Structures are given as C-alpha cells and as structure tokens.
Amino acid sequence: MEFPILSLLLIVPLIGTVLTIAGGKRYAKWVSVIFALISLILSTVLVLHFLPDSFIAFAPDSTGRFFAFEMYSWAPSLGLNYIVGVDGLSAPLVFLTQLLVLMGLIYSWKKEERPHQFFGLILLIGLAITGVFISLDLFLFFIFWELVLIPMYFFIAIWGGPNRHYASIKFLVYTHVGSVIMLLGIFALYLSSGDFTADGARTFNMILYLEAAQTDPLFLQMSLQIPLFIAFLFGFGVKMPMVPFHTWLPDAHVEAPTAGSVILAGLLLKMGGYGIFRISLGILPEATKELWWLLAVFGIVSIVYAAFICLAQTDLKRLVAYSSISHMGFVLLGAATMTEAGIAGGIFQMFNHGLITAVLFMLAGSVKHATGTREIPQLSGLAKVMPKFSLILIIGFFASMGMPGLNGFVSEFLVFLGTYKMFNMIEMGKLIIIPLLGIIVTAAYYLWTLHRVTLGELKESLKNVVDIPRHEAIPLAILTFMIILFGLYPTPVLGVIWPHAQGLTGLLGGP
Amino acid sequence: MFEYALLIVAAPLVAFLLIIIFGRWTRQGGAAIAIAALGTSFIVSVILFAQVLGLGALGAPVSEEVFKYNWIGPIEFGLLIDNVSALMMVLVSFLCLIIGIYSLGYMAEDKSKTRYYAEFVLFTAGMLGTVSANNFLQFLIFWETMGLCSYLLIGFWYEKSEAASAAKKAFMVTRVGDMLLLIGIMAIFASLGTFNIVEIQARGIPAGALMHVIPLLLFAGAVGKSAQFPLHIWLPDAMEGPTTVSALIHAATMVKAGVFLVARSFPLVAASDIASITVICIGGFTAIFAASMALVAFDIKRVLAYSTISQIGYMILGLGAAALLFEAGHASHGFTASMYHLMNHAFFKALLFLAAGSVIHAVGTNDMRVMGGLHSKMKITSIAMLFGALALSGIPPFSGFWSKDAILHEVFVAGEMYGAIFTFIWVAGVITAFLTAFYAFRLWFMTFAGKTRGDIHPHESPRVMTYPLIALAVFALISGMLAVVIGGFGHLVTFGGTVHEGTMELLTEIFTSPLTYITLFAAVAGIGLAYIVYCKQRVSSEIFVSTSVGRGMQKLLQNRYYLDAAYRGFALHVGMGIARAADWFDRNVIDGVVNGSAKLGLLVARGSDAVDRKGVDGAVDGIAYVVTGSSNRARARQTGQIQAYIAAMVMGMFVVALIMLIYLSGGW
C-alpha cells in the first residue's frame, strides 16, 4: 500500500490537538509544536515530489492528475467517498498551511491565557484547512470547509479583543451564509451528476467532474453552469473576501489574537481562492468563459477600493487587513485572465500573500506587545528602539507593494502580464491602468505608514520600548527569509504551480 | 567571451551580503569590504571596456549577451555587453569607488556606517545591473532596487522628519514613472512575446498605435527616474540624505539610469515621430525650467540639484533630436553627444557635490548666505569646485563645453530641418547655457569669494576627502578633451555605424562654427554677470527684485512654480479625500447593509420565537422559559444575539436540508 501521507496530514494534527488539550497547560506548547513540525516535514516531502528530478514519488490516480491519492468508500449508495490527493494547485497551499500553523504556534509561545486550548485549536484549524485543500470529494470538502469555522469562532470569541463577540459572530454568520449558498451549488452539482457518470449514479467525486469538464466542457448545460458559477463565486467571494462581501474581515482581524489573524489571512482566505481555481475554473469552464468579466471586475474593484481604504486607516492591524483584501484581488484578476501567466500568478499570489501577510500581522501584534498600541498616530521613530522590527517591517511592506527581488513582485507581475495579454486580445488594454493605479496607492499607504511608525523623531513615551522578543523574532525571520528566497528564486513553487496553470489554460481555451 | 563581466555586478552584491553579516565587527563598519568590491568592479570594468573597444577597429560596436539563466517561464536572464553598457559600467564603478573613498572621511563620525555601506553597495549593484541587463524585466528589477536604495539612503538620517519625507517623496514620484514603465514593458511583451532587449531592438514594435505608445511609456519611466518635468520634484528634496548619497544619485546612478533607458530603447523612440518630439520637448523645457529655479536657491546642494535636472534635460534633448533625425532618415551625432555629456556631467557633478560636501563638512550648514570668503581657508576644495563650475558652465577646455556644444549643434540641425519650434528650443538651450553659467558662478562666488558672512570656522577637509576631489577635478578638465584627442566620442559610443573623424577635423569643425561662439558668449556673459553681482558687488543682487515683475518672478521661482504645492494638494485632498470617502462608505453603507440584514434576521427570529412560545404546551413551556430567560438577560448586551443568530442559522440549514430531501426523493 502507498504511504498514506495525506491521511497522516489529517491524523497527526488530530492527535496533536487531543494531546495538547489533554496534556494541560504545562506541556501544551511543546506537544503542539512537535506535532506541527511533523506535519510540516510531511508536507515538505509532499512538495518535493513535484520538483523536477525529485527522488520522491507518489503514485498518481487513474487520471494522472492527482498524486498521493487515497480513496476509501464511505457511503456508496449516496456516492460519498473519502478521496484525497494533491496537484500543483493544492500542494503549495498544503505546505503553506503547515508552515503558518507552526509559525503561529512559535509566535504565541508566551500565551498565558488557557494555552493548551489555544494551541490545540490552532492545530485543529490547520487540520481543517489542510482537509479543504486535499479533499477531492465535494461533500468531504464541504465538511472541512465548515469545520474551519468552529475553532476559528472560538478563537476570536475567547482570546479576542474588546469587541470580540460582535466580530466573532459576524465572522461566523457571514461566512456561513456564503457556505450555505455554496452548499446549494454542491447539491445541484450532485443531483445532476447522474447524467454524465459512466453508471449513471450520482457522485460527489470531484475528479469525475474535473474529468467530465475536460472531455466535454458543456457536460453541464449553460443554464445550469451559470447559476452554479454564481453560487460558488458567492461562497468563495465571501471567504476571499472580495468587495463588497468583505466587511467581516477587518472586524475579525482587529479582534482576533495574532496567531488567529495569521491563520485567518494567511490560510482561510486562500480557501476562497483555491475554490475559484478548483471548482469555478476547473469544473465550470464554459461559465468562466462567459463570466470571466465578473471575476475581473470584482478583482479590480477589490484591489483599488481596499487600497484607498488602507490609506485612511489608523489601526495598523486594520490596515493590514484591508491590504489583504486588496492583494487577494490579484488572485481574482489572475483567474479572470484565463491565461497561463495570469493563472500561475494568481495561484502564486495566494502562496506569497500567505507569507507576507503572516509577517505583517505578526508585526502588528509585536508592536502592540512592545508599545501597548497599534494606533499609527501614537507611534513614531521606532527604528531607533526597535531596529529588528523596523527592518522586517520594511521588507514586509516592500514585498507587499511588489518590490522586485521579493516574492510579491513575481506573482503580481505575472498577473499583470496575463491581464495585459487578455485585455490586449480583446482591445481593452486601457483597463489595466486601473489595477496599476492600485499599485501606486499601495505604495503610498505603506510608505506613509512606514514614515509614521518607524521614521521621524522617537516619542518620549516610547523611549523605553524593547525590540521584538526571540519567540516572535524566530518565525518572523524564517518567513522573511522565504519572502526573499522566493522573490529571487521562485522556481521551487512556481515550477509546481505552472503545469497546473497550463492545464487550466488549456481547458479554458486560452492561448 | 565576456563571461567575467558578471563579476562587475556580483562583486557589490556579495559585498552587500558580507557587510550585512560581518560589517558590524569590522573597524569602519564594512567600509573596507565596500571599497574592495567597488575596486574590483572598477578594475574588471576597465578590462571589459578595453576588450570591447579592442575588438576589431577602435570602437566597433559589439553586442554580446553572456551568462544566460532561466528565471520563470520564458524569461532568460543575462548580461548584454556593448559599447554603451561597457562605458556605463566603467563610469559607474569609477565614480562609486571615488565616492566610497570620500565617504571614509565624510561619514567617519556617523554611528550607522554598516547600514550606510550596505545600502551604498546595493545601490551600486542596482545601477550596474540596470546598465548590463539583457532584458527589460531584469532591467526593471535592478531599476527598482535602485529605487529602494534611494529611499533608504535619502532617508538615511531618518530621525530628521525632512529626510523621512524626502525619501517618501522620491520613492512615490519615481513610482509613478515606474508604473508607466511597467505597462510599457508588458506592452512590449504582449506585442513581441519577449523581454530581450537585443531582440526588441532588432524587431521593433509593429506599426500601429502601440508603436507610439510604447516608447512614450518607457520614456515616462525615464522621466520619473531622471527627474524630468513634470516628475522632477523629488530630486531637490533628495539632498536631505548625506551629501555622498546626493553625489551617487546625481552623478553615478539613479538619474543617469533614466537617460540610459532612453538610450537602450532608442530604436523604439526613433521609430516614432510623436515619441521623438515629446522627448525633445520635455528635455528642452526641463533644461531651462530647472535652470531658472536654480537662480534663486540659497541652499548650495539645492542649486546643484536643479542643475542636475537641467543638465539631464540637455541629454534627453540630444537623444530626442537624434531620434527625430533618425526617424526622418538622417544621420545624427545626437546619441553620441548625449552619452558624451552623460559622462562629462557624471565627472563634474560628482566633483561639485563632493566639493559641496567638503564645504558643508567644514562650515556645518548648507546656506550660502552665511558662507563667503572660504577660498583662503580651503584652497583645494575651492579650486576643485571652480573646475566643476567651469565644466558645468561650458567653458573650454573643460569637459562640459564639448558635449553641451555637440548637443546644441544637433538641436540646431533639427531646427533647420523642422522649422521654428526646434529653433525655439535651440534658443532656449542657449539661454539655459547663460543661466547655467550664472548660477554656477553665483554659487562659487557666494561660497568662496568676498568676506565670510556668518559665524563659521571653516577648515580644509582631511586628505581622504580632498584626494578624490583632486582626481575628479582632473577628470572635469580632461574628460572632454580626451574624446577629442581620439577623434570624437563617436569612436566609443555611437548608434548606427561608427564615426570616423580626425582630431583636427573635429576641432576645426567646432571652432569654425558660429554656433559655438553663440553658446560660448552666453556662458561668458553669465559668468560676467555673476562676477559683477556676487563678487565685485558693483550691482546689488537686489536689482533683480527691484521691480514688481522681478519680485513676482522671484516668488514664483522660490515656490518652484507652485508645482510641489499642487502635487501635495492633490495627494492630500484628492487622494486622501477618496480614501476617506471610501472608508466612510465601507463602514456605513456596505457594513450598514450587513448589520441591517443581521438585525432583520434577528427580528424574524424573535418573531418566530414569540409565535413558537405561544403555540407550545406547558411541558415545552418550561424549557422555553429557561431559554428566553437567559436570552432576556443577555439581550442588553450584544452577546445576546448569539442565540438568535444560531436559531436563524439552524433554520437556514433546516430549509436547505428540506429542499435537498425533497429533490433527493423526487429527483431533480
């Protein structure tokens, strides 16, 4: 039997969660970190498989699309199966999940309030998110999708800021409404699946849908594809989030503890992006060709609108939250281009944004720990007393604004390239100016923030501030290193993503 | 055969890493590492340059791409070695080395030397990478690296609020140009499917609207980086950084990169008359526009900053004139003249800045009104600066003369062919020469001649600073003549064929042309006026502001034509206005709808709750009592909504499940 690496990626954190909570306060952090580390190693092995000339190989499924494939029958009469597998789209995200979970744990090392539950819940969220990325059965996918909400809700509601109850409920209800609409889509897919399966039986098996789309893009009639596309887009759009369905995000972030924000922005939002590429583009290609402009408009509006809002923020964490919305807009825009570069850029943007935003949220947490406030006007001249913090802040901000040499540039450039090609094709080249305007606004709000927080004269009240402690510096340093590494040498991740982007482009009939 | 050229770019990059890691433990904060790396780059550049020139006949244009490396997808990185890039690498590495050595003295007392040298070498690497890039993406990466370094170095003394603002301004303004450049590069890729510069130059942009748009977009990038109108506003403020940094930005890197970009995309510009004319107009206008602002500045570095903008305007003007002539099918030396001026300007501007730095180091202020009479106290600095001022003014045999004359000559030729507008630009160029000589000597006389006006105690700078000055002063004197000696700069850098001229022919050509004497006269007149007003003080400088027109002009110039204020107003009121409006909209309208629908849901839930309670019997009543009791208590707080929310949610799920069941039993 094949080494069940993906099932292990679910089982290990599950055991970790149980042991961490059961083990009590004393052992919580060590137990959780060890289990997270095991998961990270497993996911690294998984990603290595995708590199050219790799010495690690996992067996593919019968269609050759997915690797590390496992399938067990669950409820055959209903077409329900336990199916897991990864491809170029999900493998980087699985790796990112394990990475950010571990980094979030280390960052929270000094958590004193109910640490065992805190650490346990982080592992549980990581498990659920991993499940979303690796599930190839629509029902299983939905179970994990919903499972993410519950620990996250408690996370904000228990360890959150002063307005945590409002924020946590808003998060739960809002994203749940999105899920319910998506669920309708899933059932509609399920109910119509009898028409194209070989034996006429209904199924939740995602691979069958992907294959059907491959052989006949019109395997679902357009009258069904279009409403399905809209239902899924709403479900994913709320999660991403895209403007105007985004207002749960700033509130949730402002109230969430730092590790929660890291996972929320770094991973939760990616579930939406993942869904767009996997289901909207992969299963509903004809609808995508019809409604790509919807993705483009939502993407462009998110990029520009959220960037302007960032300019008006005074809370550092709220600013980073809105910048997340702006940067996730690139994912939508990349998907909308239906070109190789655009799709690869969009997927890579998810990975890069995960790294960058994790750093930025950690920094927002660190500045709060060090100075007692996140209000930008109350900070000034921190470069003097917090050089490490300031250095990482500069790198993080510049990465986020797309400075060449850092990872954000590669993905944003690819998205723009795809966009340009596409718009040029249909003689709408001028439109590209609008998202590029977003880039200038992005530079403006980051530089202005940098100016106000780190430069200028040090305030009297901040004279005794100390730089970030070691347990916060370690994850920041690791993530910053990866930001630089993948900026200079994106091949290890981009090489995994690119074939998938090629496949999708072929499906969408792009150039 | 030029594989070793990689070392030129790699040396400062490696030094950057070494300084970050080991810099703090070395005695001068990593200065030795920086100097060693810059020295290596310089020596290798010289070898490369010699080899490039030595290929075949002297100055045969060669271009070779070396060291290719696949980055992402179809993009291949590498170095493009030809006359232009080889020259630029020698120039950049030499000036960076000189400025680096000078920094040993200038920055001796600074506490953050490690940071300084790390950013310094990265800046150098950025410029060297830009000029040697074989594709536009690589070009952009190094180009932006320079943008980052300029941000860090201008804001080097970040405690000073002005420095932090200037850094921000520099980055933001150049970013606008960079964005347009990015669009241009993507447009090239979209129409040609490549970033490779050689291929792009060879194939050209297919005819159509893009043929004009693309060179204009690339030029916009140059306008931002080279501080040309209307994106010039960042450069005068950029002097908030250390003076060595100003010298770097003005002479060796950054602003020269813009000119280089126009030179690299020259075939594209020359293919479009619209682009060529735009380039000419922007260059010509910027030259006189910036020179006018230099007339009223009292900050010694600010005068030099405006002079850079103005001189770069000349180079852009020359390239534009050449492009237009090429477009019409004529031969032109404009390309050569501009690169020639770029080289000469690099030497004398570095000299002027380093000399100004020496003055500032000695007197502790930038304000020329408190200086004066420094000649007797600091002779080396004074004479070095005099050389720089002469070169800038265009007095033979100093370097500026030769190249400025050549550029104006090209513009005049273009004027003869295209009529009034270019003749007009040529006249503006000559007036600029007059203004340049005037402000250059206004600066020198105010600083070094007469009596000391303020309470200052100057002293000559240490040798580590004066020796670089002497070296640069020598170059300011001879760099122009050297090219004449070898029979014209065209032997080193040309576009479209080599130029074969002898030294004597060249000299005869220059000194028999009446044009030469017109510009020369303008320059001498400028110096003369400055002498009368600021040295002899026969005429008080008040004379310029004795009339209301004069006062109005002065106010206009001192306020920099109100452009800075206009941009600031735009950013503050329009940019921030949109931001605030969007924020308000987000909090009140979008979130208002969300909260409103939540309240509506709550209302429905409460309604159904009430109906439910009335309709159930006593046994259930008891349980209901507990629920409503707790929810009543909680209702005052926001938390109380949770039951209602969950109720709504469960109801929703129930409805969905119901629909599902119905369909499952009945079929779709």
Label this structure with key terms.
heterodimer; A: 511 residues; mainly alpha; two-stranded antiparallel sheet; 18 helices; globular; B: 668 residues; two-stranded antiparallel ribbon; 25 helices; 2 strands; 74% helix
Description:
The complex is a heterodimer of chains A (511) and B (668). By secondary structure, chain A is mainly alpha-helical. Chain A is built from 18 helices and two strands. Chain A has helices spanning 5-48, 90-107, 115-134, 138-159, 164-192, 206-215, 222-239, 248-255, 258-283, 285-311, 316-337, 340-371, 382-385, 387-400, 407-425, 433-453, 470-488, 491-507, and strands spanning 67-75, 80-86. In chain A, strand 1 (67-75) and strand 2 (80-86) form a beta hairpin. In chain A, helix 12 packs antiparallel against helix 17. The longest helix of chain A is centred in the first third of the chain and has 44 residues, at 5-48. With 668 residues, chain B is mostly helical. In chain B, 74% of the residues lie in helices and 2% in strands. A two-stranded antiparallel sheet of chain B has the order 1-2. The longest helix of chain B has 53 residues, at 563-615. Chains A and B meet through helix 5, helix 10, helix 12, helix 15 and helix 16 of A and helix 5, helix 6, helix 23 and helix 25 of B.
Shape of chain B: globular
Most extensive interface: A-B, 68 and 62 residues
| Main beta sheet strand tally, sense and closure of chain A | 2 strands, antiparallel
- Summarize model confidence as the mean pLDDT of chain A: 88
Number of helices of chain A: 18
Which outline of chain A best applies?
globular
Strand content of chain B: under 5%
Query: How many runs of DSSP E, i.e. beta strands of chain A?
Result: 2
Low-confidence stretches of chain B: 56-60, 629-640
